Amino acid sequence: MRLLLVEDEVDLADTLADGLRREGYLVDVARDGASALTAAAASDVDVILLDRDLPVLHGDAVCRTLVAQGYPARILMLTAAGALTDRVEGLDLGADDYLAKPFAYVELLARIRSLARRTQTTRQSAVREFAGIRLDVARRIAEREGMPIRLTLKEFGVLETLLTAEGGYVSAEELLDEVWDEPLERTRGVVKIVVHTLRRKLGEPAVIHSAAGHGYRMGTS
Questions:
Q1: Choice among 77-81, 162-166, 209-213 with the minimum mean pLDDT
Q2: Beta-carbon neighbour count of residue 21 at 10 Å?
Q3: How far apart are CA 46 and CA 72, in angstroms?
């Protein structure tokens, strides 16, 4: 699950991003409204945490633009203005939810989970199945022939991406964009290692295949 955190307060943004990553989310960070639109266009985001009072381009304008473009991510607007009229204005702009600062971190997590469930329902089924492999994205459960498979967050993300491709090739660069958000880990070698361990955990017969110049795909042959 990928989040876009749009917050110009550096300390708050860093604290929230670190916490959310520990929860297992992929987190991109934008510091102003214009950067938020650029980041949203560059990646497939599920939930946007959007501060309302942003430099360069106001959060209201960001929200209106995303809604007008039909961007599929859910928008949770964050702001220090918590009066009823402010909440109504934010929702009228097209935001899916509104949370006033200061907020409890556990409530933020609950709001994100709620919006993420709605995003998954809108986009596609949260369950992927192929060759006896069953991946429940919402509950983060992986099985093969009914037997549970313990996967790391990266292994789970790679498997989900390959299953979503429905037999098509996914390049190492595409996997890095979908699954990795840590700059220091974004190398083709890291992808190769994760795919190797994922293959081992999935067992035989092998269902992840690779081809030089193409990448990786799911297949029975």
A1: 77-81
A2: 15
A3: 7
Is pTM beyond 0.90 here? no
Measured CA to CA, the distance from residue 147 to residue 29 in angstroms comes to 37
Looking at the predicted structure, is the pLDDT value of residue 12 above 70? yes
DSSP H or E run through 85: helix 84-92
Task: Provide the angle, in degrees to the nearest 10, between the axes of the packed helices 33-42 and 59-68.
Answer: 30
Max Cα-Cα span within the chain: 60
Structure tokens at 206: 């092998």
**CA 115, 125, 110: angle at the middle one, nearest 5?**
20
Please, which contacts does 150-157 make with residues 24 or more away whose CB atoms are closer than 8 Å?
A: 150/201, 151/198, 151/201, 152/194, 152/197, 153/24, 154/179, 154/180, 154/194, 155/194, 155/197, 155/198, 155/201, 157/26
Residue-range domains of the chain with CATH: 2-123 (3.40.50.2300), 127-218 (1.10.10.10)
Q: What length does the chain have?
A: 221
